[in-house]
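Troubleshooting log. The previous run stalled partway through. Resubmitting the same two chains, unchanged.
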Amino acid sequence: MKKIKVKVNGKEYVKDIPEYKTLLDFLREDLFLTGTKRGCGAGECGACTVILNGRAVNSCLVLAVECDGAEIKTIEGEGENGKLSPLQEAFQHHHAVQCGFCTPGMVMSARSLLDRVPHPTEEEIKEAIEGNFCRCTGYKQIVEAIIDASRGGS
Amino acid sequence: MLRKFNYLSPTTEEELLKFLAKHMGKAKLLAGGTNLFVDMRSDLLKPEYVIDIKKVPGVKEIKFLSRVGLSIGPGVTCNELIECKAVEEKYPLLIAAAKELASYQIRNRATVAGNICYASPAADMAPALLILGAKVKIASIAGEDIIPLKDFFKGVKKTLLQPEEFVKALIIPEDYSFMKALYKKSKRVKGHDLSIVSVAMGRIKGFYRIAIGSCGPTPVLLEEIPVTVELKEIISKALKAISPIDDLRGSADYRRNMVEVYIKRIHQELGGKN
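Second attempt completed without errors. Output:
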């Protein structure tokens, strides 16, 4: 067991965790932040995408112990005061959600893109969500939602 | 859930080398973890110890010095390489290759050195680093050694690296801002996928340099070819150097055909005639 201190969605946590626990399992099982989804467990599908120290990562391929001292943002930290963020509203408005399983990862990848490129091109958006699979194949609406959010609409 | 292991996080190079010497054969090094954890989850690897190198000073360093060239620490991720100004100015080929490697999220963890140490025949960084004359700086408790990258690969996922050693840096001794070079990769989908065939080809001081990925047990670097050599002859040399197989991503014939197509295309884009 190792003690780690992390800041998740602005809140500090100090926890004892086994060394072999992934960041994904830590978020879901220890912090009960189940918005982050487990898909393939191998870095292919992107359902577990979170933002670690400002960078989008697959949380299934990161150990929780590697995150000691880190700042993490998950889908639960995207909206504020119980309200959806403009990006989430854009997803809703464009029906960019079918079964919803890929959505938290998609939103986190989009958030990470908009944080570094506020007005991305369509090509840049497609590249940014390349590592996120949607098996309902609603990619078009997802891209439209991100374009819309980047223009400040919803 | 991963199988149990002991996590070690050395904070000096000395400590790292001691851990490696002590747990020889029972430990795996952790940099980005994007290959390691996948192989551990599928039980291909069952290390007793996982040694995280990221807290060792200097591992995240990427810098260009005029006498030494470009030095890439073993903790430098693909995206950190892509964002590095010196790389953009002097080694744009590395950026082109890194952008082809997996997805954005993976590139935020996966390291350039890890891609080389994993030694997949499909490693995206390998062909580019090979034609740039990269060298591998290896350290162990016994000392340091520098060897050419082309001698580092020994087979599918096999390298010269011994259990007590670690890659301290990848070094490109020369400034290649004047080299024209391109990287082409074929894959099954437009999104992230391993390569079926990859070719890096550059033109420098009257010679072509060509390296080919996914067409043999290791990435292949050809001998330099004078630019005066006919295209037909260049292709024939490349096809002789490779030994592709049929696998789930493509057939050996398809791979040979694509090597020819890519060399023709790059040759033309580099201004080659005939």
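Takeaways: The two ends of chain A are 45 Å apart (CA to CA). The mean pLDDT of chain A is 96.
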